[in-house]
Amino acid sequence: MVGVSDLWLPILVSSVLVFLVSAIIHMVLKYHNKDFTRLPNEDAVRAAMRAGTTAPGQYVIPYCTEMKDMEKPEMKQKYTEGPVAVITVLPTGIPNIGKNLAQWFAFLLVASLFIAYVAEHSLARDATYLQVFRNVGAVGFMVYGLGQVPNSIWWGKPWKNTAKDLLDGLVYGLVTAGTFGWLWPN
Questions:
Q1: Distance of alpha carbon 140 from alpha carbon 97, whole angstroms
Q2: Is 88 exposed, middle or buried (CB count within 10 Å of its CB: 0-12, 13-18, 19+)?
Q3: What would the pLDDT profile of 33-87 be if each residue is shown by its tens digit?
Q4: In a 10 Å sphere around its CB, with 0-12 CB exposed, 13-18 middle and 19+ buried, how is residue 50 labelled?
Q5: Where are the domains of the chain?
Q6: Which one-letter DSSP state was computed for residue 70?
Q7: Which of 183, 124, 114 is nearest to 2 (CA)?
C-alpha cells in the first residue's frame, strides 16, 4: 500500500512542472491573450462604475433577488433591453501578480495532494508506469479541466475559452500523470 506521505516527491515535482508549463502557455504560447475583449464604451462603463462606487465582488445585471421576480414585466423588459452581464470587479490598483502566482502554486500543491490521495487508494505499490499514468492523468484532467465547464454553462463564459481551458487541463493532467508515473514508489 502506498500512502500520501510516500508521494511527497511526485506531489511537489508535478506542482512545479505544471506551474512552469502554465507559464509557458501564458507567456510564450499566449493563446489565451484574446480570451477577453474590450467594451466599445469602456470609458463610459468605467465612469459609471466609479460613480456608483462599485466595491470588489461579483455582480449580475439585471439583478434579480428571487427567480420568481424574473416573471415581473419590469424584469422581463430589462432582460429584453439588455445588456445581460456577469461582472467581476477586482480591487483598484495594479494586480499583485506575485500574490496571484503564489496562490496558483498553492492551488497546484493542493490539487496534487488530492490527486495523490485518489492514486494511493486506487493503485498498488507495484503499479506500472502506464497504470499510474492512466489513473493520475484522468484525475488530473478532472481537477484541472472539467471544473471550467460550469463557467460556460451558467456564467456565459465563451465556449471557445473553455475549450482552451480544457486543453490546458489536459496538458496539466498529462504532466502530472507523467511525473507520478516516473516517481511512483516501487
A1: 25
A2: exposed
A3: 999 999 999 999 999 999 988 999 999 999 998 999 999 999 999 999 999 999 9
A4: exposed
A5: 4-36+95-183, 42-89
A6: G
A7: 124
